[in-house]
User: What shape does this take?
Amino acid sequence: MPGQLEGVASSGQVGVDGLWAILRGKTKKVVLMLVDSITGLRYPPIVVEGEEDARTWGRMFRRAGVAGLNRNDLRGVASDGARGLAGYLGKALEWVNHQRCVFHIWRNLGGELTRSVAEAGAGLVGDAARKARLQARRELVSLVHAIIDADSQTAAEAALVRLEEHRLGKSIAEEIAPHLDALFVFLKEYNRGLMRVAPEFVWRDFRLRLSRGKNHRSTQRLERAGLVYAIYSNFTPAQVRSERKRKYRYPGLSPLAVAGVPPNGVSYLDALSV
Assistant: This one.
């Protein structure tokens, strides 16, 4: 519904992510969702063909705008680095900084890291090769951590030089270097509160609590499930107790409450009936 989130404050720092799903006839679709980095507020998602077209990301931002997001308030976007999103930001939201997801950077480094580690054991056999590979992996992972988890971009640049100087690290450094600026957007004053990972966590609840992500036979049903999930998430308080591997930033509060508009006993089912 137009204006469903109108008047709800936005931090201007958001994250975006997509969930791929296989529908009837083995058709692949992706659900795109925009999430406020600070409040956790979910904006109504869309279902599209893919992530590589800038126009699809434009549709997602327009739908968020129809719901009540003022795009002029946007300051930063965290994502996994989809090319379509980068193209859209450069054309339509040039004042918005783009933060690259650190987990996806690690994932993209996996192949190059494996090749470099294998090179360390070349010409050796048995325990000698295994120990050489293990030592090389420890050294390279430590150097990459020093870059990605640095306290400042200056420290990251110094760590990148050390990685380049490592006998096995040059190719890995070449993979990281083009993304160095985008890894530290979240440290800027302009982007205070911006997450440094893509909001993949939203799909956990989408799969487990409402959908399981595999029961949608059509685009319309998939999108409807995404819309219901967004409303459910915005109205439902986070549990107070932490789980073994999961802690909640605002225990006992819903995203709407964190944004300053507490539902005051109104459930997501009440919202759906409205």
